[in-house]
Design a protein that fits this description.
This protein has 124 residues and is α+β, with helices and mostly antiparallel strands. Helix content is 22%, strand content 41%. The protein is built from two helices and six strands. Strands 1, 2, 3, 4, 5 and 6 form a six-stranded antiparallel β-sheet that branches. It is elongated and about 55 Å long.
């Protein structure tokens, strides 16, 4: 899926430098800090990913995933998925919610599917 998620300190430092130059905030992954059940804070990030699929095999033409592409925003994910579906069997735009402290994925939402995608994609 590309580079690992940045820590909250790195994200805040980048945002501070960006704002100091008079530029608007970067439209990248959404970041929020939430309290955990142990009195500390955990950082939750939402990353947007496009998952393309292609057909494999002559007789059983089954769908196989191609490498994921991490993109900058929800809109970019939707645009890329729609475009890739014209070049491949299909594509899905996904929003992944990740706890950066533990590195675990907390939630996967299917934003949209274009073309042929596995039936059980939303159940993953």
């Amino acid at each position: 899926m590309g580079a690992p998620f940045a820590s909250l300190e790195v994200v805040l430092l980048m945002l501070e430098k960006h704002l100091a130059r008079g530029l608007p905030p970067h439209p990248g992954p959404e970041v929020r800090a939430t309290p955990d059940n142990k009195g500390g804070m955990m950082t939750i990030q939402t990353a947007f990913v496009v998952q393309p699929f292609t057909f494999e095999g002559r007789k059983r033409r089954r769908l196989v995933p191609l490498p994921k592409r991490e993109v900058q925003s929800r809109e970019h994910a939707l645009h890329q998925a729609e475009y890739l579906a014209t070049r491949r069997a299909g594509a899905a735009a996904l929003a992944l919610t990740v706890d950066t402290a533990s590195g675990t994925m907390r939630q996967m939402r299917v934003l949209a599917c274009f073309g042929a995608v596995p039936d059980d994609l939303g159940a993953a």
